[in-house]
Design a protein that fits this description.
Elements lengths: L2 H4 L15 H17 L24 E6 L5 E5 L2 E5 L1 H13 L6 E6 L5 H13 L5 E3 L7
């Protein structure tokens, strides 16, 4: 009997050809959690809202216009006339106008294109706090 055969095991070791996926899945789950936590914290960039491609013309009978010029001055234009207002007076004036109008009446905000978006949002907030039912944003149709 030879000595070399006595030290060999009767079975040969097989190589494992499988990839362990557990570490890969762990890393992917950690990355997913990181993206889910950080995504809501990102601030969106500023957007320039140009004229709309297609807009519908509102009925001109029962509509009041809130005009905001480039200096932030507010005017309420109704079929009865036009008056300059402060932001605090806007809601009450628009709500009292709408109280005397039919149910389908609306208040349309028309602002200068160069005006900061915050001024438009503040005007909308005042109108909503005052209980104005329908608020619209006025846009120009894009030139063809």
């Amino acid at each position: 009997m030879s000595t070399s055969s006595s030290f060999r095991s009767p079975r040969r070791r097989r190589t494992v050809n499988e990839i362990n996926m557990v570490p890969f899945i762990d890393v992917m789950l950690v990355l997913l959690i990181i993206f889910m936590v950080t995504a809501p914290m990102l601030t969106p960039g500023g957007i320039d809202v140009p004229s709309a491609g297609k807009s519908t013309k509102p009925p001109t009978k029962h509509i009041a216009h809130v005009l905001i010029d480039k200096d932030g001055q507010l005017r309420l234009k109704t079929p009865q006339g036009e008056q300059a207002l402060s932001l605090q007076e806007l809601g009450a004036a628009a709500a009292s106008w709408q109280a005397n109008q039919p149910e389908d009446s609306a208040v349309m905000i028309q602002a200068e294109k160069s005006l900061p978006y915050e001024a438009v949002v503040q005007a909308m907030g005042e109108l909503q706090r005052a209980g104005v039912k329908r608020v619209a944003l006025g846009v120009k149709s894009a030139a063809k």
